[in-house]
Amino acid sequence: MRIAEMNWFEVERYLETDDRCVLPLGSTEQHAYLSLSVDSILSEKVGADAADPLGVPVFPAIPYGLTPYFMDFPGSVSLRLTTYAALVRDVLDSLYKTGFRRVLIVNGHGGNSPVQPATMEWMEDNPGARCRFHDWWRAPQTWACVQEIDPVASHASWMENFPWTRLPGRTQPDEQKPFVPFDRLRDRNAAAVRQLVGDGNYGGDYQKPDEVMDRLWSTAVAETRALLEGDWA
């Protein structure tokens, strides 16, 4: 149940019997031949698909995150850490003010992880508040599924290539790209990162058959739903 498909009367009625919601975190950054909004698309959709049978509201994905290393790729947008932490905290404060107490953050971008302490501060400051920070793609069952399919998988590779992240009419390379040397990414500025990674894929096939991706997606949705249904006590 996406918030975009609800009005405030309906949210108020929902809060009479439940206080859970999903807050997706995304990013706007290069993903090789895929959409620049991959992380936002995937975090919101996995949250919505997981929450739909439960009737839990899903807020729009925050479309910008922390991605300074991709700022040499046109179209990428990065926030400062202080800005992002304040933004996430303001959103959580708003949710608490209006009656939500249990928030599942579905994060779609690894670079956003430094903001997790802000969610813990929020819980300390708000009695009864609970917040779970879920990196959906590297959660245990989902990551195990990725490894079973093909361990050569990374940013902008096949593991992010779903029908809803592809761009119509764009041809994907028919090859497996070797992993970029990750140890050399840690001390490079954005221009050097672009030089190192080339088209943006960090390593792996660019696309897998849809039936393979359906298996991965089903695993991710089920694992995310289990967090919503799990013990919040």
Automatic annotation (TrEMBL):
InterPro entries: Creatininase-like_sf (IPR024087), Creatininase/forma_Hydrolase (IPR003785). One of its GO terms (molecular function) is hydrolase activity, acting on carbon-nitrogen (but not peptide) bonds, in linear amides. GO terms for biological process: riboflavin biosynthetic process. SUPFAM superfamilies: Creatininase. Pfam families: Creatininase. Keywords: Hydrolase, Metal-binding, Zinc. The keyword Zinc applies. Its cofactor is Zn(2+). Belongs to the creatininase superfamily. This is Creatininase. It comes from Pseudoponticoccus marisrubri.
